[in-house]
Amino acid sequence: MKFSWKNILLWSLPIIVISFFLWQGLFAPVTNENNNNLVNSRMTYGRFLEYIEMGWVKKVDIYENGHTAIIEAIGPELGNRIQKIRVELPASAPELVTKLKKNHIDLDAHPTKNNTALWNLVGNLFFPLLLIISLALLFRRSNNTTGGPGQAMSFGKSKALFQIEAKTGIVFDDVAGIDEAKEEFEEIVTFLKKPEYFTAVGAKIPKGVLLVGPPGTGKTLLAKAIAGEANVPFFSISGSEFVEMFVGVGASRVRDLFKKAKENAPCIIFIDEIDAVGRQRGTGIGGGNDEREQTLNQLLTEMDGFEGNTGIIVVAATNRADILDSALLRPGRFDRQVNVDIPDFKGRLDILKVHSKNKKIDPNVSISIIARRTPGFSGADLANLLNEAAILTAREHKNQITLQEIDKAIDRIIAGMEGTALVDSKSKRLIAYHEIGHAIVGTLLKDHENVQKVTLIPRGQARGLTWFTPSEDQSLISRSQIKAKIMGALGGRATEEIVFGESEITTGASNDLQQVTAMARQMVTRFGMSNIGPLSLENEDSNPFLGRSIGNLNEYSDEIAIKIDNQIQTIVEECHLKTREIIKNNRVIIDKLVDILIEKETIDGQEFRKIIEQYSDIPQKI
Fold first, then answer.
1. What's residue 433's pLDDT?
2. Residue ranges per structural domain of the chain
3. Residue 313 forms beta bridges with which residues?
4. 397 labeled part of a ligand binding site
5. Could you list the active site residues?
């Protein structure tokens, strides 16, 4: 904040007001005479009358309109010397003056000096004048500035961050793993820098680009890169900053934003999390939100309305494109929709190279190995992975990040913080059998992913974990792969049943059974992989404004519902029987693996497969 006389006066006003009233209350002139300060003691009115009768009172001075008297008295009780005594007089004492005259006592009345009139006048004028000056400064400050504490009356002003030359410190070279999206933005930057290449063939600059993708994939990073590369005025704002509790404020902010943008065209407006203001209108229980809908209507008009917005490119980002209003997504407003997906192996490798530039990594650590071990990680996850590994390295007082710290960081991100190791007991052995059951079934099934690690070290809520390396292509999954996943998830419960008996099964398989049921239901109702036929009976896209459970209404008869339940049960029972058969046929190797796991607490996938290969009579894949 700039220090000027306006700021100093604005912040000092409360101090001035408080100081003035404290001074007025504490230091205003007193109404009593200075003689009051010489009073030695006090006396009751009745005793005062007795002193008059005894002739001890020599003089009486009356103050405060007859409420107080200062007497001069002398007598044996007073040491035979004149003393001044204060007496509080009653409201009406007509006999007092008569007694004083009868005893020939000197009487003097002192009227109250009206010294407070001036101070009351000053107080009544000073505070209203101070208030008027303060309001004038606030109005003037809100009209002349675009931010800061003086924005009390600027509700309708845009809160967008404006930069003539955006210095984000990020360029396209810092963006990796999303080459297709980066090419789209490089073209827009070229359009802004050299528009004649495109206008020569009649091309027009795109009005809007919508970035769509899961969280952490680099949508905001791309916006920062285009701001750093384009060298044009840049406005950045969040969708939630448009909406206020007052109806009409959001629309006013949209108008103000585009007004400033038109004054600085060509320019770029970046709206992050546009779903906060751009979601579908008139949906949800109880209707829509008036303020949000007015804001959206104004945004639609500004982007492509009667007046137009030549020279303004609107870049927006969201991870909820399914809830955006269709009028916002049409060409002419957002001409392009750029999907920013989870990176593949090459993308992860490029992202790790970017984020490892400022990290001290052991030369023996291969970035490609890290990339292969992290399928499904977004760009933000990979950046967090290397940061967590660096923190672990510093905690262990090492100079370089090794593969050990990388492995610990991956485990921590996927499953949570490492817990205390289990003590050797029946519970630990049962958990070991459960995890080995998952791993042996997954290893022996040809359509299942390979085992990456089996551990008895608790992480998060899990007391034991079995990791599988997911395949790169998760877009197309066959029926045999889904059934292999179901059997792998049932491996833990099946092992408990075979080894410990039906009466000793535990609650450890609760999460596994939820996954099994969900996968079997999807096979029947969405993928058409059952005897019911190639029918899609449940829609994946439910109404998000009604809640997933409310919006996902059944569109089939009760008879079909019974068939669905029977098919789900049939699939799960079939997979369960096959899983139990695998466990029975490989009981010897399971016992051996359990003993090794209890001793070492962690077995990686390569070692796990080598132990199985020692038994030549066991087929590698079923």
1. 93
2. 5-28+116-144, 34-109, 161-339, 347-415, 426-613
3. 268
4. no
5. 435
Please determine, for residue 2, whether its predicted confidence score (pLDDT) is greater than 50: no
Which DSSP letter does residue 61 get?
A: E
Q: Name the residue with tokens 């292509």.
A: 473
- 8: Cβ–Cβ under 8 A, 6 or more apart, which residues? none
CA distances from 608 to 9, 433, 438, 517 (A): 75, 14, 12, 28
CATH number attached to the domain at 161-339? 3.40.50.300
Does the pTM exceed 0.70? no
CATH number corresponding to 426-613? 1.20.58.760
- Cα(621)–Cα(204) distance, integer angstroms: 58
The SS3 call for residue 466 is strand
pLDDT at 504: 87
Selecting from 1.10.1740.10, 1.10.10.10, 3.60.40.10, 3.30.720.210, what CATH number does the domain 34-109 have? Answer: 3.30.720.210
Q: Is 214 annotated as a binding residue?
A: yes
Please give the Cα distance from 350 to 365 (Å, whole number).
16
Q: Is 90 annotated as a binding residue?
A: no
For the cut 60, the answer to whether the pLDDT of residue 32 exceeds it is no
In the numeric block, which tokens belong to residue 469? 């390396």
Q: What is the CATH number of domain 347-415?
A: 1.10.8.60
Residue 149 has pLDDT above 50, yes or no: no
Q: Which residue carries 């790790």 as its tokens? A: 352
Residue 125, amino acid: L
Which residue shows structure tokens 């994939």?
A: 217
Tell whether residue 14 is among the known ligand binding residues. no
